[in-house]
C-alpha cells in the first residue's frame, strides 16, 4: 500500500529535506520521476510569446468574495475555501480555486531576482488536474490599503474564518510567464500548468506577523532544471 502525503513527514532541511523527498515513500518517488520539475528560474529574454489558437482563450480570472478558513499543514499556512466558488479558465477548461498558501522566500526567480514571499493560488479541474498561479511579493512595513487586512470583509484568525475576494492577492499588472512543471511540495507530481506574474505584489509585515514565525521560514524548494521545456510570456496591461 502506498503511503499518502499526510502519512509521511517531510521538511525543507535534513534527512527529510528536498534532496531526499523522493526516498521517503513510493508516492513521492513516483512524483519525482516526472521530468519537468518546479520551481525554475524565469527570464524575459529566454521566453517566447504564448499563441492561443482558434476559439481558445488564455488565462482568465473569475474570482469572487467567499469564505475561507486557515490551516497549518505541509510546512506552511493555507487558506482553504468553503465552497470553491472562485475559478480561472485556461483554453476552455475551468479550474476551481482550492487553496492559497505561501513560501518564504520565493520559489521562482525572475531575471535573477528572488523575492521575500511567493503566494501560490492552487486550482483544480473536474478531472483532478492542477493549475497554479504564482505571485512573487515584496514586504511592506506599512499596513497596505489594498492588502488583505484592509480589503477583506472579515479576517478573524481566532475563529479561523476569513471572507475575501482572492483577487486582492493579484498584482494590478497581469503580465505573466507560463510553463508546464510540477508541484513544488511532495509528491512533486506533474504536469502542472504554471502561471507566474512578472510584476511583484505586496504584503505587509503586519499581515505575515499573524502566523507562527517557524511556519513561514525557509519553506521554498530549490530551483530545478529547466531542461528543454518552453517558457511562454504573456504581455497584459492593467
From TrEMBL:
The keyword Lipid metabolism does not apply. Its EC number is 4.2.1.1. It is an enzyme of class 4 (lyase). GO terms for molecular function: carbonate dehydratase activity; zinc ion binding. Residues 8-235 form the Alpha-carbonic anhydrase domain. CDD domains: alpha_CA_prokaryotic_like. Keywords: Lyase, Metal-binding, Zinc. Gene3D superfamilies: Alpha carbonic anhydrase (3.10.200.10). Pfam families: Carb_anhydrase. InterPro entries: Alpha_CA_prokaryot-like, CA_dom, CA_dom_sf, Carbonic_anhydrase_a-class. It catalyses: hydrogencarbonate + H(+) = CO2 + H2O. SUPFAM superfamilies: Carbonic anhydrase (SSF51069). The keyword Metal-binding applies. Belongs to the alpha-carbonic anhydrase family. This is carbonic anhydrase. It comes from Enterococcus asini. The lineage of its organism: Bacteria, Bacillati, Bacillota, Bacilli, Lactobacillales.
Amino acid at each position: 500500500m502506498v503511503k499518502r502525503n499526510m502519512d509521511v513527514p517531510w521538511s525543507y532541511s535534513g534527512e527529510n529535506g528536498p534532496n531526499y523527498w523522493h526516498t521517503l515513500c513510493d508516492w513521492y518517488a513516483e512524483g519525482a520521476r516526472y521530468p519537468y520539475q518546479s520551481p525554475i528560474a524565469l527570464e524575459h529574454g529566454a521566453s517566447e510569446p504564448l499563441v492561443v489558437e482558434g476559439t481558445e482563450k488564455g488565462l482568465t480570472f473569475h474570482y469572487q468574495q467567499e469564505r475561507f478558513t486557515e490551516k497549518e499543514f505541509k510546512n506552511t499556512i493555507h487558506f482553504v475555501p468553503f465552497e470553491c466558488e472562485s475559478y480561472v479558465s485556461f483554453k476552455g477548461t475551468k479550474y476551481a480555486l482550492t487553496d492559497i498558501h505561501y513560501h518564504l522566500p520565493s520559489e521562482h526567480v525572475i531575471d535573477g531576482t528572488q523575492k521575500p514571499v511567493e503566494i501560490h493560488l492552487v486550482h483544480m479541474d473536474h478531472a483532478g488536474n492542477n493549475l497554479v498561479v504564482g505571485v512573487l511579493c515584496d514586504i511592506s512595513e506599512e499596513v497596505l490599503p489594498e492588502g488583505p487586512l484592509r480589503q477583506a470583509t472579515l479576517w478573524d484568525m481566532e475563529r479561523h474564518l476569513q471572507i475575501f475576494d482572492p483577487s486582492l492577492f493579484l498584482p494590478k499588472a497581469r503580465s505573466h510567464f507560463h510553463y508546464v512543471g510540477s508541484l513544488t511540495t511532495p509528491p512533486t507530481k506533474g504536469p502542472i500548468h504554471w502561471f507566474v506574474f512578472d510584476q511583484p505584489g505586496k504584503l505587509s509585515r503586519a499581515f505575515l506577523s499573524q502566523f507562527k514565525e517557524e511556519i513561514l521560514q525557509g519553506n521554498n524548494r530549490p530551483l530545478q532544471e529547466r531542461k528543454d521545456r518552453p517558457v511562454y510570456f504573456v504581455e497584459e496591461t492593467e
